[in-house]
Design goal:
The protein has eleven helices and 19 strands.
Length: 401
């Protein structure tokens, strides 16, 4: 009959002695995670925090005196987690919000057709798209939206406010508008709106034809539309280019690089880096228009993000004259990371730096320095004349257009 090796039997008393020691050590280390090795501490603490979250959620779902919508509870908790970063550029998108976001970056969405910015009483209309429900309803830049379907927007975030305005195609929404102290209510039917990414026309500066190209958003494919418009008008005899980026809040980083490359033949456009992101430099992609063609870029306080990358790269590379007012000042960039529930986190992951090495600041928590125009030319909203555009055309004329 085979026997058990003697040395195996010798482990029994050793284990009897070690088990209480290991138990006490485990309890002590559990209360003093800083004394654990880094990788072990990170794993155990993260697991502990995850269990704590699950424990709290379980108590709410089980014991709260009214039925709980688990999905809404999860959305709210994720939204609160991102809000605790105190970063105005970071957001949690619920599955529905993420779909709306994806539609807007593709150049279309279901809504009423306008761009807005946050205002203390709600939303301020920046621009209204042609052939949109908003245009047909008489909405105009400068109008304030103070309520949606009778519910005040005061104190609401811009994301929450715009989400209330959007909705399924064919449904209606009532907007309370304020203009010069007078309120009125307009009922609009939502429809799928194609964002007019590029508007272009021929202007004159100093007796010469010049190309005017306005870009409203850096959506997918915007560089192709801008490039086509610029080259078409140059082919029709334009001697200079006005690129209008006023009220353009940005969009996709790669589109900013490609649009800058229409005017800059080679070299650095922008670089990015972040705590968990290695530094990356984006260079011009080639096939630029002639460097002898003068360029003017029009900007204002709502020119932000990708618009500032284009403006700043052209200014730093001495390729364009910047005309208007100081830009927004957003020196950080976000990445969208999908979640298993169909939503996503849109969080700030790094900063970007222009060819000169400057960063426009902001950091998500405070206003940035922005870009100071070469020619200060604010537009007066009380006049029909576009003072900024006129200053831009004069700048082109001086440059030889």
């Amino acid at each position: 009959m085979p026997s058990v090796p003697r040395r195996s039997r010798n482990w029994v008393p050793v284990l009897v002695v070690l088990l209480p020691v290991l138990l006490v050590a485990g309890i002590w280390l559990g209360g003093h995670p800083d004394d654990l090795p880094g990788p072990v501490r990170d794993t155990l603490v993260a697991d502990s925090q995850g269990r704590l979250y699950d424990e709290a959620m379980g108590i709410i779902e089980r014991d709260y005196y009214r039925p709980v919508n688990e999905r809404a509870l999860l959305d709210t908790s994720l939204d609160s987690a991102v809000s605790s970063l105190h970063d105005r550029f970071s957001n949690y998108f619920s599955p529905k919000d993420y779909q709306d976001f994806s539609d807007s970056t593709d150049g279309a969405f279901t809504g009423v057709g306008m761009t807005v910015e946050k205002d203390p009483v709600g939303l301020k209309i920046i621009s209204v798209f042609a052939n949109s429900p908003a245009k047909r309803g008489g909405l105009a830049p400068g109008d304030l939206i103070t309520a949606v379907d009778g519910h005040s927007l005061e104190g609401s975030s811009s994301d929450e406010a715009t989400t209330r305005i959007k909705g399924p195609e064919g449904t209606t929404v009532s907007l309370t508008l304020r203009h010069d102290g007078t309120d009125r209510t307009v009922k609009l039917e939502r429809q799928r709106v194609e964002i007019p990414v590029v508007e272009s026309s021929m202007k004159r500066a100093g007796g010469q034809k010049v190309a005017y190209v306005r870009l409203s958003s850096f959506t997918s494919g915007a560089h192709g539309a801008v490039g086509s418009a610029v080259r078409r008008l140059l082919g029709q005899g334009a001697k200079g280019v006005v690129l209008d980026l006023r009220n353009n809040g940005g969009g996709l980083l790669n589109e900013a690089v490609l649009i800058s490359s229409i005017f800059i033949p080679d070299g650095k456009i922008v670089s990015t880096r972040g705590r968990a992101r290695p530094e990356h430099t984006y260079d011009a992609t080639g096939d630029a228009i002639s460097g002898k063609i003068p360029v003017t870029v029009l900007v204002n306080r709502q020119t932000a993000s990708a618009s500032e990358i284009v403006t700043g790269s052209l200014q730093d590379r001495h390729r364009a004259t910047v005309v208007g007012t100081r830009t927004f000042g957003k020196g950080v960039f976000q990445e969208v990371e999908r979640l298993s529930n169909g939503g996503a986190l849109d969080i700030t992951v790094g900063e970007y730096f222009l060819p000169s090495g400057r960063n426009l600041g902001g950091g998500g928590v405070k206003p940035g320095s922005g870009i100071t125009p070469d020619v200060q030319a604010p537009d007066d909203p009380k006049t029909k004349r576009d003072e900024t555009l006129q200053a831009g055309l004069k700048a082109l004329a001086r440059a030889g257009a």
